[in-house]
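SUBJECT: protein chain
CONTENTS: sequence, structure tokens:
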Amino acid sequence: AAIGENKCTLESYNRRDFYKISLVTTGWPPCQLYYGNLSPIEVDKPALLLLNPLVPHSWVVPDREIETEGYFCVFDDKFINSSAQLNGLASQLFNEQSSPVYFPDNEELEFLSVLFKRIRADSDIQYDDKENLFRSHLNLIFHEALKMRNTKDRADKGTSRIVASFFGLLR
């Protein structure tokens, strides 16, 4: 569904028996996400969020001039566990040790927006294999998140390596 559709907001969907994926496309000033034992995460630009129902989380959403816009979908363990591939990807993404927030670049944001629009449109069609269609969409979303995580990890390692080399030269 779209954020804002039927009065849905970032902070309104708090059921703890469903996984929630949100794509926030607009709506600033920044929000803060408190997720498990992690430091508060500031969401101040477009973001993909993958929230595990077993990890306590809450939003601090200030009054804003621009309403939050984007998309979200929810699903349960049964849906994830019905596909070994989806379950494997989910186990890499939905854990309490890593940040559930990914900041896509413009190209990734456009691709993810199209996927979420497609999920929304496909929810209204009559199709016998609709659940597998949704699993395919989720599979693509999960792979996009993993690609964003790997890109960030490589950048962090590269920065650390440069800093270590710099300090090594200073000695």
Remarks:
- The longest strand covers residues 19-26.
- The chain has a mean pLDDT of 83.
- Strands lie at 19-26, 31-35, 41-43, 47-51, 57-60, 69-75, 101-102.
- The helical segments are 77-81, 84-93, 106-122, 130-170.
